[in-house]
Design a protein that fits this description.
Blueprint: E1 14-23, E2 30-31, E3 53-61, E4 67-68, E5 78-82, E6 98-102, E7 106-107, E8 118-125, E9 131-139, E10 150-151, H1 155-158, E11 166-174, E12 182-189
Parallel strand pairs: 1-3, 2-4, 3-5
Antiparallel strand pairs: 6-11, 7-11, 8-12, 9-10, 9-11
Length: about 190
């Protein structure tokens, strides 16, 4: 494992914290990133420190030879902090990110007014704790705001959009730390009676 090098700044650090045993096998190396001293260039006229290695654990085996500070001025430090009482909180798997796509305004045409739009189908892979939400909002003219978003998979809610000539859709994808949803496609029928 190696932290990132930098062309003009300090090398990246590596920090490992475990509420238990940390063991390395022969040939395993954990190294800090190289600072700018290792990559002297016209764009960077100063040297910088190498990245540090910090290992915190209850106990460790085979760590002495495999921990290397990154090259730099000065070289990165190696700190091995063994503490039999160390407690490391578990990672939060509920933290995540989300993103949203909103379509341009879609004119269904006057013939579609009075018809309830339908979500015909969709295909998504949703790991546990993730979601892909498809919503619609409508307006009877372009001067109206698109404010009242309804779930596209709720036929009862879509009735509110029957008299809207203009529609927009939005898709919100929400993931969690190690998992991301994938929405391959969705199909809307904006004038199902035609």
């Amino acid at each position: 494992m190696r932290a990132g090098d930098t062309a003009c700044g300090a090398g990246g650090d590596v920090q490992i914290a475990v509420s238990g045993l940390v063991r390395t096998r022969d040939g395993t190396v954990v190294q800090g990133g190289a600072g700018s001293a290792a990559f002297w260039s016209a764009a960077c006229t100063h040297s910088a420190a190498g990245g540090n290695i910090i290992v915190q654990a209850r106990e460790g085996e085979g760590l002495e030879d495999g921990l290397l500070g990154g090259a730099g001025v000065p070289d990165g430090e190696v700190r091995l902090e063994l503490n039999p009482e160390l407690t490391v909180p578990p990672p939060s798997l509920t933290v995540g990110t989300s993103g949203r796509v909103v379509s341009k305004v879609i004119d269904r045409g006057l013939a579609a007014v009075g018809q309830v739009p339908l979500l015909v189908g969709s295909e998504a892979r949703l790991p546990e704790g993730t979601s892909a939400v498809i919503e619609l909002a409508g307006a009877s003219n372009l001067a109206e705001p698109f404010e009242d978003w309804v779930a596209a998979d709720d036929p009862a809610a879509l009735v509110a959009l029957a008299n809207a000539q203009y529609l927009r859709y939005r898709v919100t994808l929400t993931g969690r730390v190690f998992d991301a949803p994938e929405l391959d496609y969705f199909e809307l029928d904006l004038s199902p009676e035609d």
